[in-house]
Amino acid sequence: MGKPATVFGHPDYIYVRADYTVYKITLADILFIEGLDDYLKMHLESTRHPIVAHMTMKAMLYRLRGADALDSPFIRVHRSYIVTFNRIEGVRNKVIPLAGRDIPIGASYESNVRRCFLGQTKSADFAAYTFSATIRAKSTY
Fold first, then answer.
1. What domains lie within the chain, and their CATH numbers?
2. Could you report the per-residue pLDDT of 5-35, keeping only the tens digit for each?
3. CA angle 45, 109, 77 (to 5 degrees)
């Protein structure tokens, strides 16, 4: 793949080195990040192909969030996925449809996603219904 990736941060963008190239990535351009062992696939709105960098999910999430993790638009929803919270339009059966892909919500991340979703939406009743319906549907299998 190339040399290991490094990330340099700024409030509106980050620099990611991958495949001997340094990419300037605007945070608002990130759709989601997919983890593949020690590599990340950064799916961006502006590019057709993801950027593949040698970095762990934990390290990338720390760099994206910076010191102020509570105000960060990025949330880890699965062992292998980080999504931009503002791009989530809905959740159904522990799956987030995003950019033509179905992003799963991991069992250990579900309560955190629920908390974020309930805290951010204008209609908490709708969000609570969505998640409770998901839980009920899962228990009927």
1. 7-139 (2.40.50.1020)
2. 545 555 788 889 998 999 999 999 999 999 9
3. 5
